[in-house]
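Design a sequence for this backbone.
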């Protein structure tokens, strides 16, 4: 029987980083991936003349060399930064809410952002500046917590990172209200909420603030070869470090011993691997629901208490005209019915009402990403309920078409750009696509939703309690850093290093 110090199940962002961390810690590692390529959502695909990015709009927290972010620091430590060809994203975002006559294009750079906000919302400078000061304190506190693998003294945190502790249990709405920020400034500042998939009354302020400050202060990047280029670089590094990667290999069962702890993995087809350490890059619902026979009652209850995040839908368009010809002025747009995120979240529960979208035209960051004379776009939305589960098989194709049409109509109506007649290629991914591709229940693309009791801070603080089964840890969008590219990478970093510690302790 093959024997490894650790097996990582899934070559998504979290799984690949965890594998590198394990290898750097001296472990013998096997990474199994059910698909024939790495990345999970971090991939690309071709239709006709176009290579579409499957998920990444822009990589947060990477930053340029002279203002490197935490992700750049992590990639440097992993040894992959220079394997990737990066391009910067020009502007932070444009948010449009036609009903409210809101149309704001926000820049990168904290001072530039505050100045632009003051232009759109005179009198906002003071509260928006306070927001960034607070967000910076939170970022530093998180960096400290991360450096200590989440094991921090509460008295130290209260003394040295007081505002982090103080804001820790409040939502985005609560803290922005307390800063006395004008409503329109709140609407513009909270436009990113859909990237975290929970509305501002549920979303933890610390989570949101740390994401926004990383975006705004360091800008964002995109690999020229799409996120697939990052995935290939991470795999190359795993192999350089002596790790094994088996593609087309699905883990079916986790074998446990008398103490309930990990003893091995059974792969599809019956091959068994002996290991005492597994990092699962798939959802706990899948692991506890299908891969393990004996699961403690408390774990089942805790897992079921969590809520799935938005189920993904993405339309990809290859257009036979340039962005300039089509009047697509910006890299990324948020198009909402209302800037009240609680109301918008409700609208996004139903297929019949949802055409809110985060829309990207990569040519605005990287003009050569598509053949000369063309451009390409992605339109992403989330469904905040399992409404796609109600679609009958015979209605599936026409439902996809209906939503795709709604999204095109919304984009044309909100921006004045006319794209419909220039479509050369179209592909649509629904929650069914995502459920099938990565194995995530209901096609959720952001793991478990951030909740008041289950946001970033509680998860980081509960890491110890969440580690119930000896030898089993999780990395990726369902774990302690929640979802998104940088979060998934960081969860792999934390879990990989924790597992190295587990292995060393066992050795002792
Ligand atoms: C349309 C779309 C747009 C997005 N936009 C952004 C964005 O702009 N910015 C951002 O930060 N995030 C974005 N995200 C979210 C981001 O892609 C995810 O949060 C992140 O990629 C999740 O990484 P992960 O580590 O959880 O792995 P996943 O991508 O979930 O991959 C898990 C891997 O495990 C494999 N696997 C599962 N079960 C098994 C098994 N039993 N055996 C073997 N292998 C298995 C799967 O095949 C898969 O490769 C977007 C996602 C989508 C779908």
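Sequence:
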């Amino acid at each position: 029987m093959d024997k490894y110090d650790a097996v990582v199940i899934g070559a998504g962002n979290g799984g690949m980083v965890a594998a590198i961390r394990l290898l750097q810690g001296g472990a013998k590692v096997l990474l199994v991936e059910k698909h024939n390529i790495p990345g999970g959502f971090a991939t690309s695909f071709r239709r006709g003349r176009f290579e579409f990015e499957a998920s990444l709009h822009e990589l947060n927290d990477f930053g340029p060399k002279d203002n490197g972010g935490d992700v750049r620091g992590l990639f440097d430590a992993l040894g992959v930064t220079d394997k990737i060809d990066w391009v910067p994203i020009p502007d932070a975002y444009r948010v449009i809410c036609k009903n409210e006559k809101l149309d704001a294009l926000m820049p990168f750079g904290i001072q530039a952002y505050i100045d632009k906000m003051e232009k759109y919302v005179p009198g906002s400078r003071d509260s928006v500046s306070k927001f960034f000061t607070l967000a910076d304190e939170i970022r530093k506190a998180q960096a400290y917590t991360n450096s200590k693998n989440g094991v921090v003294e509460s008295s130290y945190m209260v003394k040295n990172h007081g505002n982090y502790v103080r804001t820790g249990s409040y939502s985005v709405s609560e803290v922005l209200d307390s800063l006395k920020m004008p409503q329109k400034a709140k609407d513009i500042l909270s436009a990113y909420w859909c990237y975290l998939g929970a509305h501002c009354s549920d979303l933890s302020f610390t989570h949101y603030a740390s994401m926004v400050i990383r975006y705004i202060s360091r800008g964002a990047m995109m690999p020229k070869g799409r996120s697939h280029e990052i995935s290939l670089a991470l795999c190359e590094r795993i192999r350089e470090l002596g790790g094994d990667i088996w593609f087309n290999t699905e883990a079916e069962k986790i074998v446990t011993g008398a103490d309930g702890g990990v003893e091995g993995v059974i792969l599809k087809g019956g091959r068994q691997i002996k290991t005492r350490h597994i990092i699962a890059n798939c959802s706990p619902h899948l692991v506890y629901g299908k891969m393990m026979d004996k699961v403690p009652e408390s774990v089942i209850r805790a897992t079921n208490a969590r809520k799935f995040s938005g189920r993904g839908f993405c339309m990809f368009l290859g257009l036979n005209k340039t962005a300039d010809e089509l009047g697509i002025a910006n890299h990324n747009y948020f198009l909402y019915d209302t800037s009240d995120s609680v109301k918008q979240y409700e609208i996004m529960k139903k297929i019949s009402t949802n055409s809110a979208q985060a829309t990207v035209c990569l040519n605005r960051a990287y003009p050569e990403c598509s053949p000369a004379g063309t451009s390409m776009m992605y339109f992403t939305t989330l469904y905040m309920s399992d409404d796609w589960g109600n679609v009958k098989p015979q209605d599936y194709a026409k439902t996809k078409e209906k939503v795709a049409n709604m999204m095109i109509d919304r984009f044309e109506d909100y921006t004045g750009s006319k794209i419909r007649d220039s479509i050369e290629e179209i592909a649509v991914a629904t929650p069914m696509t995502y459920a099938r591709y990565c194995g995530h229940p209901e096609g959720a693309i952001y793991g478990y939703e951030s909740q008041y009791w289950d946001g970033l801070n509680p998860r980081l603080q509960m890491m110890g309690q969440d580690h119930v089964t000896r030898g089993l840890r999780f990395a990726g969008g369902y774990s302690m850093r929640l979802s998104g590219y940088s979060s998934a990478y960081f969860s792999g970093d934390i879990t990989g290093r924790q597992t190295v510690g587990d292995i060393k302790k066992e050795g002792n």
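The pocket of flavin-adenine dinucleotide is lined by residues 9-15, 32-35, 40-42, 55-57, 250-251, 281-282, 312, 314, 380, 434, 438-439, 445-446, 476-477, 483-485, 488 (CB under 6 Å).
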